[in-house]
Amino acid sequence: MTLLAIKDLSLAINGTQILHDIELTMQAGEIVAITGESGSGKSMTALSVMGLLPQGSVTAGAVTLDGTDILQTSEPDLCRMRGNAMGMVFQEPMTALNPVQTIGAQVAETILIHEKTTKAEAHKRAATMLERVGLKVAPTRYPHELSGGQRQRVVIAMAIALRPKLLIADEPTTALDVTTQARILDLLRDLVREFDMGLLLITHDLAVVADVANQIIVMQKGRVVDAGETKHLLAHMQHPYTKALFAASTHAVSLPKAIQSAPLLRVQNINRDYPMSRQTLLGPRPMFRALYNISFEINHGERVGLVGESGCGKSTLTHAILGLEDVQGGEIRLDGEPVFTGKRPNLAVRRKMQVVFQDPYSSFNPRHRVDRLITEPFHLLETPPTGQARADAIAKALTDVGLSPGDASKYIHEFSGGQRQRIAIARALIVEPELIIFDEAVSALDVSVRAQVLDLIADLCRKRPLAYLFISHDLSVVRTVTDRVMVMQAGKIVEQGETEAVFSNPQHPYTQTLIAAAPKLPALGMAV
Amino acid sequence: MIRYALGRLTALVISLVVASIVIFAVIEVIPGDPAAFMLGVNARPDTIAALRAEMGLDQPLITRYLDWVTGLLRGDFGQSWTYKTPVSELINDRIWVSLPLAIYALILSTLIAFPAGIYAASRRGGAGDVTIMGATQLGVAIPNFWFAMILVLIFAINLRWFSAGGFPGWSDPSQAIKSLTLPAVALALPQAAILARVMRSSLLDMLGEDFIRTARAKGLSARQALWKHAVRNALIPVLTIIGLQFSFLLAGGIIIEQVFFLPGLGRLIFQSISARDLIVVESVVMLLVFTVIVVNFLVDLAYAAVDPRLRTKA
Amino acid sequence: MSRNLIIGTALTLVFIVLAAVSFIWTPADIETLDIPNKLQGPSAANLLGTDHFGRDILSMIMMGARTSIAVALVAVGIGMALGIPLGLLAAARHRSLLDELVMRGNDLVFAFPSLVIAILITAVFGASAVNAIIAIGIFNIPVFARLTRGAALPLWERDFILAARVCGKSATRISVEHILPNITNLMIVQGTIQFSLGILAEAALSYIGLGAQPPTASWGRMLADAQTLVSIAPHTALVPGFAILLMVLGLNLMGDGLRDWLDPRIRVART
C-alpha cells in the first residue's frame, strides 16, 4: 500500500518559487533518498511533508500520507499527526535538543503529548526507547553531557517513540564522524525493518544514498530531475545532471609525479598539553594531552594527507605547525628553523607556509575588499611590493586560481562558496610559500564545486612544485590528492605510509574501521 | 553545583573587599583631612581635633580601614557627626522604607513585563505586539521621577486616591503599602518596559532555535513549544537584567523618595551630603553596594537552577 | 531607512538645533528675573510660559538642551574611549589574568550604579556638571568594555583572524585591523542608546541637586523647581518632562532604526 504520495507539489515562499511539480511515491518499509546540492529544495520538500513550512509559504498539489492530504490538514490536526504518524530527525544534533531538559523528559514528551498516560509510564517507555536506539546513558542526563552521535540517537528516539509510519531524516549524519555515521545509518535501517516504517532520507552524500536507499530522487533547483529504483538508476543514469553529480562525487584528479627531494617540514616527538578546569577549588589544573609524541616529515613538493575524526587533534596539530602555539616537548622545524619563536613570530619561517581553512564564509573579513584580503600575507615580507608591482601580484594571484583581476575591488559577500575557496587559495599563494596546509579546505563545498577546487589544486602542483598537508575527514578526497597519508586517532598517529598502500591494505585496526565505515559509491554506470 | 556556588561566593567576597577599599579610599583618603573637610573652613581647631580623635584619624590608614570593616561586620557603622547617634540606628529607621520600595517595584516590574513580553513575542508583528512595543518605547524614555510627579498630579492631587507623599510607618501595613504604591509604580513602569523588551527579544531568539523545531516535529503546537521549551531558556538573559534592575531600583528609589517625601535612605544620604557627614555617606553607600553585590550573587545561583550546563561545568 | 530612523533622527536633530541656536539667540534672557510675570501659561510673548522667577521656559529648555547634550555626549565619549580598548584587550588576551581583571573590574563598577558614583563624587568634590559627566562616564566604561569583549570574542574564533595570525600580525594589529571595523556598527548603535541613558541620568542627577548648579540651566533642575508648583502651574513640570521624554525617545528610535539599517543582528544592552 502506498504510504506517502507527493503529487505536483509546488511551493513559493514570499513570492519566490522554491519547488516545482515534485512527484514521489513510497511504500511502508521502504527507504527513499532525496539527494541534490545545496539549494535544490530537498529540505523544503521534507518540511512540506511535516507541514512545518516557514511563514509566507504557498503550496499547490497534494502530499498524501496514509490517505490524508497534509496540505489540506488544519494546524491542530497536523499537531496530532506530527510525532505520531510521522517523525523527523534533523541535521544538527548539537542544537536539536532543549538544553535545560533531561533527555528522558524530552523523549517522554512525545508520548505525553499524544497519549493519555501517566508521567511515570511515559518516562518508562522513553527509557525503553532510548535503550532501543542504542543509547547507553541514563535518561536523567542533560544534552550537553552527550556527544553528537548520542544526541542524534536521542532525537531519533523522540521521533520514533510512537512508532510513526513515516520517518523523515534531514541530513541525519552530515554533522557526524564517519564511524558514527555508519552506526546511525545501521540503526535507521534496523528501525525501518523492525517497525515497517517508511524512511524519507534527505542527504547530499551520494555514497550514503547508494548504500541505504531503495529508491533515489535527484533534485536540482527545486525540480526532480531523475528518479528511480536505486540499482536501476545507478546502472542507467538518464539525466546529465545525475551523471555529473555522480561523476563529481567520484572525481579523481591527476597529480603530477612527486619529485624525490629533501625534507621541508620536520615534526619530531611533539606533545601538546592543555590545562583543564580545576577539579578542586584551589587545586592544580589537570592537563589534557591533545597530541602524543607526533613525528613526521614532509618533503619539498610532497603532498601529504591527514585523516581522523573530530577531536583527534587535527586542529591542534595545525596550530602547532603554523607556529601559533607552543608545544610541550619535541620540536617542529621548517627548512631547519623552529616554527614557534615565542611572542615575536619569525617572519622568515612564517612566509614559507600558508593555510586554507574549511569555512569559506568565516575565512575573510567581510569589511575588506579582495585586494586587501589576499595581500594580507605581504605582512610577512621585508619589502612588500607597492604600486604597480602590488597590482600585478594581485592580478596574477587571482588569474592563477581562475578568477579575473577585476575581482580585486569586490567585497567577499559578492562571491559563492567555491569562489571564496579560490580566493583563499590565492591568499595562500601570493607569497609563494613552500608549504600549504589545507584544513578541511573542500569539506564545506558541494560535490561539483569540490571537484573544481580539487582540479585547481592539482593544476597548481603542475605549475610549480608545491608541498601541502591536506587535512580531511573525507577518505575519498584524501586518496585522490595525496602521495602519502597519516591516520590520526586520539592525539596519536596510528598509521602512515604511501596513500595507495594504506587505503588498499590498512594495517592498524582503526584505519581498517575508518575505511570500512566510509560509505562507498559503486563504480559509475555499472550494474550493482 | 557546590563548586559553582563556592566559586560565585569567592567572587562575592572579593567584590565586597574591593568595593569597600574603593569607598574607603574615596571618602577617607581623597579629601586629605576628612575631619577638616566635614567641618568646613570656619571650624575651630579644637573642634577639628575632637572629630579627628573620634574618627580615629591619628591611626594609620590600614588600621582605620580594618577598624571600619570589622565594625561593619559587627553591625557597627560608626557614629554620625551631625545626628550624634549611631549610623546603624539611622539606617535601621530608614531601610524599612527603601528596601520594601525596591522589592515592591521589582515585583510589579516583573509582573507587568513577563506577560507583556511573552504576549508580544507570541504575536510577533501583530497588533498586540506593535502596541506593546510602542508602549515600551515610551516607558524606556520616560524619566521615572517626572513620571512620579505626573502620578502625584493625577492620582493624589486630582483624584485624591493616594496621599501625595509621606510614610505612616509599618504599624498599619496596608496603609504603609498604600503609601508606597505610587512610588513603586513610578519606579516599576520604566523598568518593566526594559524587561518586557528583553523578554520579547530573548524569546524570539529562542523561537528561532533548532530545538523549537524539534519540539514542533514532536507534535507540540506553536503555543506549547513557546511555553514548554522557549520560556525557560529565555529566562537566562532575563535573569541578568532582573539582577541589574534591582540595583537601579534601589538607586532610583533614592530619587523617587525625594518626590514622595519618603523617610528612606535617599533622604538620609542627601541630608548627610549637605551636612558633609562623610561617616553616614560612607556607610550608606557601602550598604547599597553590598545589597547590589549580594543580589547579583543570588542571580548567579538562579542561573544554575535554570541552566543545567552551569551545574556540571565549573 | 525605516520610519523609526527618520522620526528618531528628526526628533534628535530638533534638540541639537535648539541647543546650537541657544549659543547665539534665545527668545528671552534667562538671567534677568521678572518676578511679576511668574508662572504665566503659554502666550505669544512666552511660547511655553514662564517659571517661578518669570523666566521664559522655552529659553530655559534651549539652554538646558545644551547641558543635557554636552553631559551625555562627553560621558559616552569617556565610556567609548576607555571601554572599547579595554574590551578589545580583554578579548585579545582571552582567559588571561588581564581578561579576568578587566571583567571583574567591570562587575565591580556595575555594583556602583551611576547615582551611587555621583553620590560618592559629590560628597567629596561637591556637585557640578563636570562631576555628573564623570559619574555617568565611569558607568559607561564597563558597558562598552563588556559589549566590545562580547562581540570580539566570537570574531577571534573566526578563520580570518587565524589567517591574519598566520601572516604574523600581532594581537593589537589584528584588533585594530580586523576586530574594530566589524564592531563599529554595534558601537554606534550602543552609543546612541548610552547617549539617551546619559540624558536621563543627567536629568536625574540635576533633579536631586547633584548635577549642574545654578545659574546653568538644566532640565532636571527645572523639574525640581516645578515640583512644589505642579498643582498651580502644571506647565512648569510638563514642558521640561516632555523635553526629556522626546529627546530620549528620539535617540532610542534612532538607535533602533540604525540597528535595523546597519545590521539587524546587532544586540544592544539596555539597562
In short:
The complex is a heterotrimer of chains A (528), B (314) and C (271). Chain A is of the alpha/beta class and 528 residues long.
The overall pLDDT of chain B, averaged over residues, is 87
Q: Level of helix content of chain B?
A: over 70%
User: What general outline of chain A do the C-alpha atoms trace?
Assistant: globular
What structural category characterises the helix and strand content of chain A?
alpha/beta
Shape of chain B: globular
Question: What's the total helix number of chain A?
Answer: 18
Radius of gyration of chain B over alpha carbons?
Answer: 24 Å
In quaternary terms, these chains amount to: heterotrimer
Structural class of chain B: mainly alpha
Give a short account of the largest sheet of chain A.
6 strands, mixed
Interface with most residues? B-C, 55 and 42 residues
Number of E-state strands of chain B: 0
Proportion of β residues of chain B?
Answer: under 5%
Q: Give, in order, the helices and strands of chain B.
A: HHHHHHHHHHHHH
Total of helices of chain B: 13
Widest sheet: strand ordering of chain A: 6-7-8-3-9-10
Our measurement of the CA-to-CA distance between the termini of chain B, rounded to an integer number of angstroms, reads 8 Å
Write down how many β-strands of chain A occur, each being a DSSP E stretch of 2 or more residues. Answer: 20
Residue share in β-strands of chain A? 25-35%
Notes on the protein architecture:
The complex is a heterotrimer of chains A (528), B (314) and C (271). By secondary structure, chain A is α/β, with parallel strands linked by helices. Chain A is built from 18 helices and 20 strands. In chain A, the strands form four sheets. A six-stranded mixed β-sheet of chain A has the order 6-7-8-3-9-10, sandwiched between helices. Chain A has a six-stranded mixed β-sheet with strand order 16-17-18-13-19-20, with helices on both faces. The model of chain A has no long low-confidence stretch (mean pLDDT 90). Chain B has 13 helices and no strands. Chain B has helices spanning 2-29, 34-39, 45-55, 61-73, 87-122, 127-141, 144-158, 173-207, 210-218, 222-260, 265-274, 278-306, 308-312. Chain B has 314 residues and is mainly alpha-helical. The mean pLDDT of chain B is 87. Chain C is mainly α. Chain C is built from nine helices and no strands. In chain C, α2 packs antiparallel against α7. Chain C is elongated. Classes of the chains: A alpha/beta (528), B mainly alpha (314), C mainly alpha (271). Chains in contact: A-B, A-C, B-C. Chains B and C meet through α1, α6, α7, α8 and α10 of B and α3, α4, α7 and α9 of C.
